[in-house]
Design brief:
Blueprint: E1 3-8, H1 12-23, E2 28-31, H2 38-43, H3 45-63, H4 78-102, E3 106-108, E4 112-116, E5 119-122, E6 125-134, E7 138-140, H5 154-157, E8 166-170, H6 174-185, E9 189-193, H7 205-217, E10 221-223, E11 228-234, E12 237-242, E13 246-250, E14 252-255, E15 259-261, H8 268-271, E16 294-296, H9 307-322, E17 336-338, E18 344-348, H10 351-355, E19 360-367, H11 372-375, E20 381-388, E21 394-400, H12 404-417, H13 421-425, E22 446-448, H14 450-454
Helix pairs in contact: 1-4, 1-9, 3-4, 3-6
């Protein structure tokens, strides 16, 4: 074989797996046909957060008057922001390449396609490998309506030549609500069109209601319970027909309606790799596919589509195959965040999930952040603890509010370790902070799951 391991995909999962495997002494090749660093670095979490932060500066300028500052806020320079973002992404691309080169992995700037279970066509070159990893990630999808090609997807949003004045966003998942906040903060009028009664399907009810309220307070127009019907051009503008034949004219229509595993045109049939009904690669607990020497990780498996999960999977597989340290990662209690405005962060079970297992004590706190008592901005923070009634173990921690992702990372350690409500209660808070509220919740808000337990 030409390689001990060949990795298809140069994103977070693939690069980590290739680099660590090479560091263990394996002969490693890795192919990427688009951009090193994958979705997260190039058209995902990294540039998205830079845009979120750009919007925050504008809000801080508005809020400063309440603290005695007189700041003249000029128009936002979209092109300057995108140029700065592109420079930072190029720097990160170079880091990913250098990490691989430093580990002596062989890099292929090409597409890899299976010819048979051990053979790949890599940019026209025939390559064999004892083991192969599929780490090709996913890609955004458009809703299949007439004129869908007239709208953009999230990949396009990072390269717009100018800032649109009015944006219609179709969807209500994390990408939709994040970009709604971004475009509104940078000066656009935003309409959010979605099928559900509330945004962020899959999150618990309190968070969804809180975010819907926060979006409305920012001036983002929401159209719940509506499906897009067709999209038409009107010169440089777009006309979206949705719901009960309502029409909306916008400079830009943005489809944020989900992502699909990138498994097309990889020749997986030639390798005997099984996909599920959503097109994702099926893997076992050790990331092994239906072909015993082929593995898959990251978003292409469509399990928990988060960059740190993909990175951890890549490292664990490299250690297992070549590091004489077989291990796997747990997909329980994985913390996550939505960089909406304000952001959301969560770890563990929702109230509904926990209640399905048995009675739980629920603690909820809602308050105005200290900063906004002077800024005058209408913004609320909400915090929630879900506690198993029998063991008093904290099963879930959830927050909507400023700094939620930064706060949740530390709390995730406690949840993963199995902390109880008593552990939280005896922890001294840092005052004055929002985070201290999590260790000063004393009054139970409600009990859930009693009826389920009785059944």
């Amino acid at each position: 074989m030409d390689f001990d391991l060949f990795v298809i995909g140069g994103g977070s999962a693939g690069v980590r797996c290739a680099r660590i495997s090479a560091g263990h002494g394996a002969r490693v090749g890795i192919a990427e046909d688009r951009f090193w660093g994958g979705t997260c670095v190039n058209v995902g979490c990294v540039p998205k957060k830079l845009l979120v932060q750009a919007g925050e500066y504008g809000a801080w300028a508005d809020d400063a008057a309440g603290f005695g500052w007189k700041i003249k806020k000029g128009p936002h320079n979209w092109r300057k922001l995108i140029k700065a973002k592109d420079k930072e992404i190029a720097r990160l691309n170079g880091i990913y390449r250098r990490l691989l080169e430093g580990a002596h992995a062989q890099i292929f700037d090409a597409r890899a396609v299976f010819l048979d279970p051990h053979t790949l066509d890599v940019g026209g070159q025939r390559i064999t490998a004892e083991r192969i990893v599929i780490a090709t990630g996913g890609h955004p999808e458009r809703v299949q309506i007439p004129g869908a090609e007239l709208g953009i997807i999230s990949d396009d949003a990072f390269f717009l030549p100018r800032m649109p004045e009015r944006v219609a966003i179709i969807g209500s998942g994390y990408i939709a609500v994040e970009f709604a906040g971004i475009f509104q903060a940078l000066g656009a009028q935003v309409d959010l069109i979605y099928r559900q009664p509330l945004p962020l399907r899959g999150f618990y009810q309190d968070l969804r209601e809180g975010l819907a309220e926060a979006l409305g307070q920012q001036g983002i127009a929401q159209h719940p319970g509506c499906r897009p019907l067709k999209l038409e051009a009107d010169g440089d503008r777009r006309v979206l027909t949705f719901g009960e034949n309502q029409k909306l004219r916008a400079d830009l229509v943005f489809f944020a309606t989900g992502r699909r595993p990138a498994t097309e045109k990889l020749g997986l049939d030639n390798a005997g790799v099984t996909l599920n009904d959503k097109g994702a690669v099926v893997v076992d607990a050790n990331l092994r596919t239906s072909a015993p020497h082929i593995y898959a990780m990251g978003d292409v498996t469509d399990r928990i589509n988060l960059t740190p999960v993909a990175t951890a999977e890549g490292h664990a597989l490299a250690d297992s195959l070549f590091g004489r340290h077989p291990r796997s990662i747990s997909l329980q209690n994985v913390p996550s965040a939505v960089f909406s405005t304000p952001p959301i962060a969560t770890v563990g079970l929702t109230e509904e999930q926990a209640a399905a297992r048995g009675p739980v004590d629920v603690y909820v706190s809602k308050f105005t952040p200290m900063r906004h008592t002077l800024s005058g901005r209408t913004r609320r923070t909400m915090m929630k603890l879900v506690v198993d009634q029998r063991t008093q173990r904290v099963l879930g921690v959830h927050m909507l509010g400023e700094d939620a992702p930064e706060i949740m990372q530390g709390l995730a350690v406690a949840v993963v370790m199995g902390a109880t409500k008593a552990d939280f209660d005896r922890t001294i808070g840092i005052h004055p902070t929002a985070a201290e509220e999590f260790v000063t919740l004393r009054t139970r808000t409600r009990v859930s799951g009693v009826a389920q337990a009785a059944e």
